[in-house]
Amino acid sequence: MDKKPLVTYFSGTGTTAEVAKKLAHAIGADGRRLHDSAPAASWKTGRRFDARVDEKTLVSWVDGLDL
């Protein structure tokens, strides 16, 4: 079975949701608003992005996570 990344996010105002959806699309992931859905997960440190962030910047950040 192939593994596919999942981008999870919490968005109070909608800005984070917009960026998370762009990120999910950029890396071929599913994007879902989830909170505390995987308590046993190994969480990575996040980063704040402006809603106008470009795909190249997002991909570069993900590549740096060594997933």
Automatic annotation (TrEMBL):
<protein>
    <recommendedName>
        <fullName>Flavodoxin</fullName>
    </recommendedName>
</protein>
<dbReference type="InterPro" id="IPR029039">
    <property type="entry name" value="Flavoprotein-like_sf"/>
</dbReference>
